[in-house]
Amino acid sequence: MDSMKGQGGIQMLLTAEQEARQIISNAKNLKLTRLKQAKEEAEREVKLYHSNMEAAHQKKISETSGSSGSNVKRLDEETAMKIQSLKESASRVSSDVVATLIKHVTTVKA
Q1: Nearest CA among 45, 67, 48 for reference residue 56
Q2: Which residue from 20, 30, 68, 110 puts its CA 20 to 30 A from 12's CA?
Q3: Buried b / exposed e across 24-44, counting CB within 10 Å, b at 16+?
Q4: pLDDT at 22 exceeding the cut of 60
Q5: Most confident segment among 5-9, 42-46, 68-72
Q6: Phi-psi bin for 108: left (phi > 0), alpha (psi -120 to 50), beta?
Q7: How far apart are CA 52 and CA 98, in angstroms?
Q8: CA distance 62 to 58
Q9: Residue 84 — pLDDT band, cuts 50, 70, 90?
Q10: Whether the predicted pLDDT of 82 surpasses 50
């Protein structure tokens, strides 16, 4: 009779050990599944971040290029206005300058 109890106890231990192995195996599989999901989610986030940063970079480049073109246009307009202003000033004083030069050239100092 004791051997029957011993056999039953051993069988219970073997069954419990088998159940424990199954629980551990399920836990490992669940952990691996979660790790794969986390990795995939992290990769998606990295791709999204990269695409956002690339878009911001391209936008910054286009803004810089566009403003560079407008800066060139603005500088050309300012330069043309300054040249015109200098020409007008020169034409206003040119007769006075010519008169002063002729006066100094024709005057003989003794």
Answers
A1: 48
A2: 30
A3: eeeeeeeeeeeeeeeeeeeee
A4: yes
A5: 42-46
A6: beta
A7: 67
A8: 6
A9: very high
A10: yes
**Cα–Cα distance for residue pair 54/63, rounded to 1 Å:** 14
Rounded (5°) CA angle 38-48-36: 15
The CA-based dihedral angle spanning residues 95, 100, 101, 106, taken in that order and rounded to the nearest 10 degrees? 120
Secondary structure in 3-state letters for the chain: CHHHHHHHHHHHHHHHHHHHHHHHHHHHHHHHHHHHHHHHHHHHHHHHHHHHHHHHHHHHHHHHHHHHHHHHHHHHHHHHHHHHHHHHHHHHHHHHHHHHHHHHHHCCCC
Residue 95: pLDDT band (50, 70, 90) is confident
Quick one: average pLDDT of 47-53? Answer: 96
Total count of residues recorded for the chain: 110
